[in-house]
Every structure is written in structure tokens, then in C-alpha cells.
Design a protein that fits this description.
With 89 residues, the chain is mainly alpha-helical. Helices cover 63% and strands 0% of the residues.
């Protein structure tokens, strides 16, 4: 068993993360790649998922990322003379 062979329980206990599972690292890695700008369809391939919906379930944006997205929208909407390019769809 991989868990025994890698001494997983001992490693995570020594780090103070007794409840950490290897699968959690998959969620973390995919979230970090998404935060870095890796497109969702690439993340789907990397994870080996059959659908984008499954990949989206793995992503856990933090408060800072969500706030940054709001700032991007605010900046986009408050562009001086270019505001004419904004349209309701």
C-alpha cells in the first residue's frame, strides 16, 4: 500500500497535518494552477477528468482571489472613454 510505503501517516503527523490526505493535495495543486492562470480545459486534462464540471469541483478559490476578481471587474467597468465599449448582453 502506497500510504505505508511512503510513511504518509508519519510525515503528515510530523508536519502537524494529521488529517491531510493525498487527495487533498490534488485539490490544492489544481487550485494553485487555476490561480496561476492555467485554463480550465488544461486543468481537466492534467487531472484526467472526463468533464469540466468535475474539474471545477476541485477548485477552491480563496477570499483574496475572489476579491481580486471583483477588482478586475470594477477596473473594467470604470475605464474612462472606453466605457462606450461596454454593452448589456
Amino acid at each position: 500500500m502506497l500510504r505505508v510505503a511512503t510513511h504518509w501517516d508519519d510525515v503528515v503527523a510530523s508536519l502537524g497535518f494529521d488529517r491531510l490526505r493525498r487527495h487533498d493535495l490534488r485539490h490544492t495543486g489544481l487550485t494553485w494552477m487555476a490561480d496561476a492562470g492555467v485554463p480550465l480545459h488544461h486543468l481537466r486534462k492534467i487531472a484526467g477528468h472526463g468533464s469540466l464540471t468535475t474539474t471545477q469541483r476541485y477548485l477552491h478559490p480563496d477570499h483574496e482571489s475572489i476579491t481580486a476578481a471583483g477588482h478586475l471587474l470594477s477596473t473594467h467597468l470604470n475605464v474612462g472613454p472606453d466605457r462606450a465599449r461596454l454593452r448589456v448582453v
